[in-house]
Batch of 4 targets.
Target 1
Amino acid sequence: MTDAILTARHLTKQFTTRGDGAFIAGTSTFTAVDDVSFEVPRGRTLGIVGESGSGKSTTARIVAKLIDATSGTLEFDGVDVTQARGRALAAFRSNVQVVFQDPFSSLNPRHTVEKIITAPLDYQGISPAGGKRALVRELLERVGLNPDHAQRYPAQFSGGQAQRIGIARALAVSPKLVICDEAVSALDVSVQAKVINLLNSLQAELGLSYVFIAHDLAVVRQIADTVAVMSRGRIVEQGDRDAIFERPQHDYTKALLAAVPKIDPEWELRRARMLAEEGAGA
């Protein structure tokens, strides 16, 4: 039996829309997530992949308990958190953090890096040993940023650096699970590789589990251990990463893989080595 940090069973999310009364009367229901089940192995990465509108980001929001599922259950570290409220919800959120797609949209432009990173600590009422300032310096160094830049503002950083700040913020409360919702899609390819290398090294160092949401199969292959493929709100195929990529069973998965540009193998090997060297020094 798999040692799962998170188990989702039959998650469904429906949204109700109301007509304006002039051209559209009454209400209608849209099912964004439809009977979705999966596990996130402890210390490993589940990649959820699909096109825009497939329901993957809504699934991420349910897993992070930013929104409630219409039906289904969510179990975290052996505890049912489906209906968690109050202290139980606060405890869950200290263990589950999110890294969002656009780092600049998710970082308050009026706050210094130090204030951004310590915000989860303030929300949880946590006073780290050694003080918040020391923790901020440690986290900035851990994600490859200059600790002396803690008093700077988000606009003073590049996109890749801003996303590292978002990762540092997620790590501030020592979570067990980090949800990366299209966390590298807004970055250049070379920067994507460095951030993925950072996430991989943090996982090895801290024993983190990830739910990694993406539309880019090439990115998913670099980080995921298991993969769930979503289409129209449903998981159409899931399993071991190599099995999904080398022996896809569902026509939708095959179509996604067929859309990935084919690259000369020798050139790709040289590129992979170059990015690995860059990542080691990032």
Target 2
Amino acid sequence: MSENPAPEQLPPPAAGPVPPVPPAPGFAPPQGFAPPQGYAPPQGYPAPQGYAPPQGYPAPQGYAPPQGYPAPQGYAPPQGYAPPGGQVAPAQGYGPYVPPAAPKAVAGASTLGVVAFVLALIAAVGASMIGGIAGYGIGAGTGRDIALQPTDLTFDWSILTPVREWVLTGELAFWGGTILGTWALVQGIIAIVRNRGRGWGIAAVIIAVLGPIVFATVVQVFVTAGFAAGATAGG
């Protein structure tokens, strides 16, 4: 008679989930093996080479991506984790894009602005002084004839014949001041844009713009003074 109990006499199996079987010591999955989607290695089990957790899935505790391998989206390194040498830890967060600041123009030599300032000064002051002297000569030489000329007639340009030298001088002063003033205005703007004597360039632009007004005012004052002097001298 057999000593083994009959099958119907064996105790029933225990109810509940079967505990996982730990891997054999020294076991490593083959190279290139990719676990099925949704698989996560148990705690303490090294992830196979080339394994990346699915998108949005938190990496298991103690897992670190291999060197040179980018961390998956949503992955946060565990507390106290330090990246291996040569690897930068992922940024904590991304802010709005801020474009780099434009490089400031380096100030160069101020020669360009200084030259523009000198040209504007010559155009405004020099041309106005020459024009004023010529205007006084024209007024003094024609004051008597203009005072005796009837007012109901058109202006007789032959009156300017005795003072034609002063008329020519006044024209040269006007056109010379116009050319130098335009030159100073353009060069002053270039000096401002290129930051090469910006202060001098700003002053040159202001003087060049006001130059024609100064010239016209000075010539008008001196011509009027010359007319008065000429009419008085002629009796």
Target 3
Amino acid sequence: MKLLHLDSSVLGPHSVSRQVSAAAVDRLRQSTPGLEVSYRDLTLTPLAHLSGLHLAAGQGAAPDASLRDDLAAGQAVLDEFLAADIVVIGAPMYNFTVPSQLKAWIDRILVAGKTFKYGAQGVEGLAGNKRVIIAISRGGYYGPDTPIAPGEHVETYLRWVFGFIGIHNPEFISADGIQVGPDHREKAVAGALKAAGDLQAA
């Protein structure tokens, strides 16, 4: 069984989402003999954002020579994703949504004919055989009963993205309110780490 671990926080060792994603991976590694884990830090090896040249190449045009290495990197992350049975993602909220580094990765895995296809009944996801676990950190509280709930575009966005490719039950572990104050941060981190440690075995 293969697990792909991704982090997207720019905060390095100070990142809450990194702590929680690492705890989730540790839990699954301990509970799953022979689990093969690969890791990609999207901030250390960022993917380029899509351009018109990328889209042209995706439509069958001869790729521009300047894109050769980047297209190879995009193919590599798509292959990693397709090969994984489990995907664990660290996803902090930056200005109400995911980091741009994570968005660039998403742009490389949402590929028609690979992770979804269009048919007579509409869109069909092709990646529904994967388990996806997402560790979210948010500075405030964005629950459905809060005044700022409409500004939450991390969990809502990722739930839609993965549902689009057939993964309809992604698992979320959230650390909320980490910028409200030290006590709130400590409680949020402790709760998220406990949730990671209690994950169901693979």
Target 4
Amino acid sequence: MDIGFIHAFLASLSVIIVSELGDKTFFIAAIMSMRYSRTTVFMGAILALALMTVLSAFLGYATTIIPRWLTYYVSCALFAVFGIKMLKEAYTMDANEAQEEYEEVQSELRKKEEEVDKQAMVDLEAGISRTPQRRLLFSFVSRVFLQSFTLTFLAEWGDRSQIATIILAARDEVSGVILGGILGHALCTSLAVIGGRCIAQHISIKSVHFIGGVVFLIFALSALFIDPDDH
């Protein structure tokens, strides 16, 4: 198999896992899966993450108009910066960071549900029914699925994993980046919806950041051993 594809796949898979474990999207899936159907929550979240991965990969691929050697070494430098930043965050991070992030996401989701319930009550009291378009939409797609998709997509936008995917696609084979990224997201989201509260509250964000920093640095240093033309 092509070494470029393998490198892109492994890099994307590793980077996504260390970026997404204990991330906001992870907690969204974990909390929603405790209230609603795990399958529905998973499908909404993974569709959003897969779409974001493809969009990010093609954004990175668009930079191929720039000389190959330049994008390759610039991306490696950015990976090194990410790695150092994550190691610094791991060193200064509070041990209860995961619990705080979990409670913050839980609070946000509760507020959104209260807003939806309040709006539904106002509409009911005013005798306002859903528009035909909304009724048609909800006849095909459940509200939970849409909520999982929307919240995950918005939380992922501008996230570390999205930026990392763009950087990887700028230097590595796009197909490998996309497949590795989607698999990484699927594994993390599966853990979130299956483990739910247990994993969300006992995961060590400090350890994940430390491992993540090392992973980012490893792939940054790979530039010293792999020729850009091999990708």
